[in-house]
Design a protein that fits this description.
Blueprint (H helix, E strand, L loop, with lengths): L4 H24 L15 E4 L2 E4 L4 E7 L2 E6 L5 H10 L6 E3 L4 E4 L5 H38 L7 H34 L2
Antiparallel strand pairs: 1-2, 3-4, 4-6, 5-6
Helix pairs in contact: 1-3, 1-4, 3-4
Length: 190
């Protein structure tokens, strides 16, 4: 099979790092009461026959705490950008003034904050599921390496590998919980 102690740990750490990075990226796009370009940068825009992320077709800036401005690289695509933002169902009403697009953030209500906190919890749980699946794969690889005579893995090193996989899982889940706690506090802050 070709799995060794180090290769199993390396692959598993890469998978958990990817899960954390994905969660951080997802959290960036969540509204916290302050305008932030990440809230719209991944909106897909129909741009000359292909789908592009908004950040690839326009400059996005936070003018102030409640206003985003979007200046298309090609002014003829302004209408397509407005349409894409509306279709993304983010709860924003883009205003096209002919030169740029403005998005005024409506004030966050307590109900919105609680709904968003629930979404954050769901995102974190999906990341934990990803980590659990990666742990399962790592444990399978550890078992295969133990059975493979060429890998030369002893019973003690097999047990140590399984323990290390579990320790990485626990550490990653703790990191996910901390990210969730921080982002939830940010959303709930008035």
């Amino acid at each position: 099979m070709g799995h060794t102690y180090d290769s199993v740990v390396k692959e598993f750490k890469a998978a958990t790092t990817k899960a954390i990075d994905h969660l951080k990226n997802e959290f960036k796009s969540v509204r916290t009461g302050r305008a932030h370009p990440a809230m719209v940068e991944n909106v897909q825009v129909e741009y000359y026959g292909s789908r592009q992320g908004l950040k690839n077709v326009a400059n996005i800036n936070a003018q102030d705490a409640t206003t985003l401005t979007i200046k298309p690289f090609d002014p003829s695509q302004q209408h397509a950008i407005v349409k894409a933002i509306q279709e993304a169902n983010l709860g924003f009403n883009p205003i096209d003034d002919g030169k740029m697009i403005r998005i005024n953030m409506p004030p966050m209500t307590e109900e919105n904050r609680k709904r968003i906190a629930g979404q954050l919890k769901d995102m974190a749980e999906r990341s934990k599921v990803t980590v659990r699946n990666a742990r399962q794969d790592a444990n399978k690889h550890a078992d295969l390496a133990h059975k493979d005579k060429a890998a030369n893995m002893t019973e003690d090193s097999h047990r140590a590998l399984k323990d290390e996989i579990q320790n990485i899982t626990n550490s990653t889940n703790k990191q996910i919980d901390e990210l969730l706690k921080t982002k939830t506090e940010e959303v709930m802050k008035i």
